[in-house]
Amino acid sequence: MWQAQEIKQSLKSKIFGRQIHTFDEVGSTQDIAHTLASCGGIEGTLVIAETQTHGMGTSGKSWVSPPDGLWFSLILTPTLISLNQAPGLTILIGHSVARAIREKTNLPVLIKWPNDLYLNGKKVAGILSESSCSEVAVKYIVVGIGINVNVDSTLLPVGATSLKDELGKELSRLELLTKILQAVEEDYLKFKVEHNLQLFLKEINELSLVVGKKVTVRLPDKLIQGKATSIDEQGNLMVELKDGETEIITAGEVSLRE
Ligand code: BTN
Predict the structure, then answer these.
(1) Cβ 146 under 6 angstroms from ligand 1
(2) pTM for the complete prediction?
(3) What is the CA angle 28-30-34, rounded to 5?
(4) Nearest C-alpha to atom 2 of ligand 1 is from which residue?
């Protein structure tokens, strides 16, 4: 079970984890983080649980959260980041998490745009970013990170895997958490200065599962087919259509074509 004191002692980050709330079982760490944030919870507050009974994924999907995973939410209060910069920040966080996992495990984790983490063709982690906004600015963002660390894949949905099952051994969740918080904080502080992904573009494109591949993109009103050519500094996905035109995708569900 998570102990706030133990997490604090191993943290190397300065902002993330200044406040830590640990739980054995919650509905969703997102809900708790939203409540804390709306009552003045400070930037970097970490909410972490051993299990979630109503874990939330993107697009209203549920997120299976049995024991032995990493299920946590962070409160960010990025003043001076405008609404249209928030998607870029989410892309960046997915990239920071992938980088941290790669450094810790040497596993070839890739990112399926916008921020699903894949390993050997199976989903191993996901990011859910939820903003609370005024008319022009972001008031706070709750970033939820779910990683199937030491979970047995048989407990996960079809098409998902865990780090343990791909690596063939268990990992220290505390060490991985520490590494991720440090990586995300490092990149977040740079993003707060730059306001775009320019500094990270090369690596973001290199770690992309979709760039260079034929894709289908499901938008609310249509399906697009083409070749994903790159991710730009706002975090948009460029898709080249058959007629040579480029479609700029700001949001949507991407799948790879054979
Ligand atoms: C996805 O669908 O890929 C996003 C999954 C996000 C899951 C994490 S687990 C911690 C936090 N609490 C939740 O209920 N969801 C996020």
Answers:
(1) yes
(2) 0.96
(3) 130
(4) 57
